[in-house]
């Protein structure tokens, strides 16, 4: 039996977005031996994703990370955590095993996709997805794009796409103006944020930003060619080459759930010091509730300090409180309208991995019944796409998480399991 | 001047910018379904790379001589 | 109870065995009600490999599995049961195992079952992804695989059409002679049939059934990687002894091209957590047989509890007055469900049973556990 070398650290951080970076900085600067595992080729997560050079706020944090002495292992994808002190990650074609005293989970968020007729057509993708694809080198110039769904992410993505030469035909936010207006008005209290929002809006000034509008269906032969939109009264069509459509973010809870951390209302239960219900495991960033960069930086820093045995200074705690209040306002402002539940027809695919249609699902089933009867959620995405959709459509909570939390080669399960214990 | 490299998409040699993702390369070449989440979660972007099936195009960076097959 | 008269039966447990019993009893003129605290097929039925395999561990097991496989072959199943008539290859690692396979083949043929011995070359042609150096295999083309949760639902649907009532979400809290206590009060019937798998001991603590935990892994889609269900002849050694823990190579292709990889056995009570060292051991053994397996993507690992008895035969028949049992099928619940249902219906209605019921008598003497 091969004795797999283990990287040992005082504090292991999973996730290299703002929360993970802040946590690693805080713990390392407090003198701890820190290991940060990140899936991407470079740290920054989704929001600070870059190929050539990080955006401004990221630059300082990433420089600080380098200076902190934390060891960053990029392209390390955690697929199992046999216990709260052990991580198993794919890395460089092999397996990396990490042993730690304290574990900080900062696994971020993914987009929520809701099914509608035509959503499986080629060139229908997410909003953050379009941003990610653009940043990864895709050419959007000359493409006629509709950006739709919900959430503040629609703005910067529309601006990015327009800036990259796309013709943004329309940005459609499902939340009504009656909710958006007070939210934006409150932003006036944070001039920086307001300027940021307006800046994004200027980024696609020639395109309309409509509120209370959502996509009913997409149509096309080989790929999307037009989108049907509605405001609840009027319905019309918009021609497009690309439809970017997603409805906010959901936290990547899988690793936390595997470790047995309590989850409530779709977020990890966190204490004052960001500790989860599992001793020695901390949570930061979007795991505690979708709240954006500032909240991620605050919770990450608090978690890093706590893992290093330090208390969080009051200004940081206040930053977290402000961030949580903003998160609550975000959730309320962009809450999803019930009409979105009536979008799928019987033939609309809900589970893309296993081709399970909406009509095959009995709303009276329990989630496990649905899973066993149809194989819903049993494909490679492990229920990440259909799970969020079914939670909204039927009120079905996510099922028990089983290892591996990411598909991984059988050789990797053999390698790390042997060394465990 | 950004470096350009050659990859093969479904048997055809294509010149792409170095450092982009396979998803972006396929998108720019007009080949394949296009991704959904583009961040490694949904597995819609699966392709066979250098003979290994079920590789995610969106989390794989192009490399000189990479063999990408989009079918099945 | 007067055998031969139409009777009322309360079946406790809507897994594959309970469902098959309900169908057989309803089809024999009994008034049947099925209870399940969760939903159809929620227990071992959902967790295991859905193989339909003839096993000759003992004469009784051979009789039961052969009769049941024949019954499965003779019925139509809805498409969502995903039956694949892929057959089984019992893989022989060396000449000694191949000789043993030859003996098995003779036994199967004597029963009227197709069985063929493959030499090393034929085996390699039949399954190119098996490692070189194997001696050969016993091929049983009549074996099949299916998807158990939907098979259980199909049997229950059939039972309903025959007049049975199915009540999911209603747990049996305790059972007695001809009665079941539930949160809705006491239900009465001529016979209570406990078919609750390993959980049957919650209702009948003296039942000689223990939970024997198994692991499975399912891969992504690799159509054509294997064509048959594959089992190592050493499987019989593993399933034989009720020892602490063991692994044996057992792999099944699904219609989608996904592979179900097993198997493991351990006695750890009801701890359902994944035992990673044992999982690794199981996967290593599988990869030893199929070297390419190591590079395939695993989507999920999980555990389940087989209802095991010390003599490896299920309990089928009367336990007490008005209280019967159909449980303890270990890893053959899916395979033997139909024959079990048939036997229960035969015994309960007083028909001459198709199979000798004596080896399955729930009150028989059991050897001591290891």
Write the layout of secondary structure elements.
The complex is a heterotrimer of chains A (421), B (72) and C (370).
Chain A: E1 6-14, H1 18-29, E2 34-37, H2 56-68, E3 71-73, E4 76-83, E5 86-91, E6 94-105, E7 109-111, E8 124-125, H3 127-135, E9 144-150, H4 154-163, E10 167-173, H5 177-187, H6 191-203, E11 209-211, E12 214-219, E13 226-230, E14 235-239, E15 242-247, E16 249-251, H7 254-258, E17 263-264, E18 267-268, E19 281-283, H8 293-307, H9 314-333, E20 349-351, E21 356-357, H10 367-374, H11 384-394, E22 408-409, H12 410-419
Parallel strand pairs in A: 1-2, 1-6, 2-3, 6-19, 8-15, 9-10, 9-15, 10-11
Antiparallel strand pairs in A: 4-5, 5-6, 7-16, 12-13, 13-14, 17-18, 20-21
Helix pairs in contact in A: 1-2, 1-8, 3-4, 4-6, 8-9
Chain B: E1 4-9, E2 12-17, H1 22-29, E3 46-49, E4 52-56, E5 67-69
Parallel strand pairs in B: 1-5
Antiparallel strand pairs in B: 1-2, 3-4, 3-5
Chain C: E1 8-12, H1 16-27, E2 31-36, H2 44-47, E3 51-52, H3 59-74, E4 88-92, H4 95-110, E5 116-119, H5 120-126, E6 136-140, E7 144-145, H6 148-161, E8 165-168, E9 174-176, E10 179-182, E11 185-188, E12 191-194, H7 200-203, E13 210-221, E14 229-232, H8 235-240, E15 245-253, E16 258-266, H9 276-289, E17 297-308, E18 315-320, E19 323-327, H10 333-349
Parallel strand pairs in C: 1-2, 1-12, 2-8, 4-14, 12-19
Antiparallel strand pairs in C: 3-7, 4-6, 5-6, 9-10, 10-11, 13-16, 13-17, 14-15, 15-16, 18-19
Helix pairs in contact in C: 1-6, 1-10, 3-10
Could you explain the architecture of this structure?
The complex is a heterotrimer of chains A (421), B (72) and C (370). Chain A is α/β, with parallel strands linked by helices. In chain A, helix 1 (18-29) packs parallel to helix 2 (56-68) and helix 1 packs parallel to helix 8. In chain A, strands 1, 2, 3, 4, 5, 6 and 19 form a seven-stranded mixed sheet that branches. In chain A, strands 8-15-9-10-11 form a five-stranded parallel sheet, covered by helices on one side. The mean pLDDT of chain A is 95. Chain A starts with 5 loop residues before the first strand and ends with a helix. Helix content of chain A is 33%, strand content 24%. A five-stranded mixed sheet of chain B has the order 2-1-5-3-4, with helices on one face. In chain B, strand 3 and strand 4 (52-56) form a beta hairpin. Chain B has one helix at residues 22-29; strands spanning 4-9, 12-17, 46-49, 52-56, 67-69. Helices cover 11% and strands 33% of the residues of chain B. Chain B is built from one helix and five strands; from the N terminus they run E-E-H-E-E-E. The radius of gyration of chain C is 20 Å and the shape is globular. Chain C has an eight-stranded mixed sheet with strand order 5-6-4-14-15-16-13-17. Chain C has a six-stranded mixed sheet with strand order 8-2-1-12-19-18, with helices on one face. A three-stranded antiparallel sheet of chain C has the order 9-10-11, with no helix packed on it. Chain C has helices at residues 16-27, 44-47, 59-74, 95-110, 120-126, 148-161, 200-203, 235-240, 276-289, 333-349, and strands at 8-12, 31-36, 51-52, 88-92, 116-119, 136-140, 144-145, 165-168, 174-176, 179-182, 185-188, 191-194, 210-221, 229-232, 245-253, 258-266, 297-308, 315-320, 323-327. Chain C is an alpha/beta fold. Helices cover 30% and strands 28% of the residues of chain C. The mean pLDDT of chain C is 95. The chains are: A alpha/beta (421), B mainly beta (72), C alpha/beta (370).
